[in-house]
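2024-03-11 09:14:02 DEBUG pipeline.ingest accepted 1 chain
2024-03-11 09:14:02 DEBUG pipeline.ingest length=181
2024-03-11 09:14:03 DEBUG pipeline.predict start
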Amino acid sequence: MTIRPDGAGLAYRDERPQDRDRHGVLWVRLTEAPGEGRPDFRTMHAARQRRVMLDRLCQVCGGPADRTSQGWLFLLQRPGQDEWSPDWPEGSLCTKPPVCRACAALAVRHCPHLTDPVAVRCRKPRVWGVFGGFCTPGPDGRLTPSPDDDYLPYGHRHARWFVACQLVLELTRCTQASLGI
C-alpha cells in the first residue's frame, strides 16, 4: 500500500478496479481459495463478506438467506446494558451477513461472536458504510495504521485514508424472531 500519486489518499501500487467499491473506498486484499481449508468462525473473508451482504446470501453456506414477509434473518449479539436502547435492534449497524434457516443453528453453535444471540428479521437492510481502519502518512511520509478499527459511513470526507474489511448494513424495519430456528 502507498499514498496516491496526487497525495490525496491511499492506493495499492498495482491497484486494480476490484480494489475499490462503487463508492471509491479501498478494500483490504486477501488471498482467495474457495473450497480450500477449514471455516474460521472468528473472522470472515472481506470479499466474501461484501458479496454475501450485497446479495443477501447466507454467511455460512453462501446460498440464499432466509427471507419471509418479516424480512431477512440476521443473528445478532444481544447488546450490553451500555448499548441497549428501547428501539434495539432498529437502526443497528451490522457487519454480519444474514443466514439461511438451515445454517442458523450451526452459526449459533460455532460463532464466537454470538455468546448471547438474538434472531432478528429485517425488512430493510440498507448499505450504510464500511468497517476497517485508517492509515495516515506520518512525518517521515510512511503510512501509519490506526491501532483501532472503526465504522465509517459512505460519503465521509476521510474515506480516502480508510481501508475497508467489512461492509456495514443499517438494519431498519426490524422485528425480533424466535431462536427456535
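2024-03-11 09:14:41 DEBUG pipeline.report Residues 46-55 form the longest helix (10 residues).
2024-03-11 09:14:41 DEBUG pipeline.predict end
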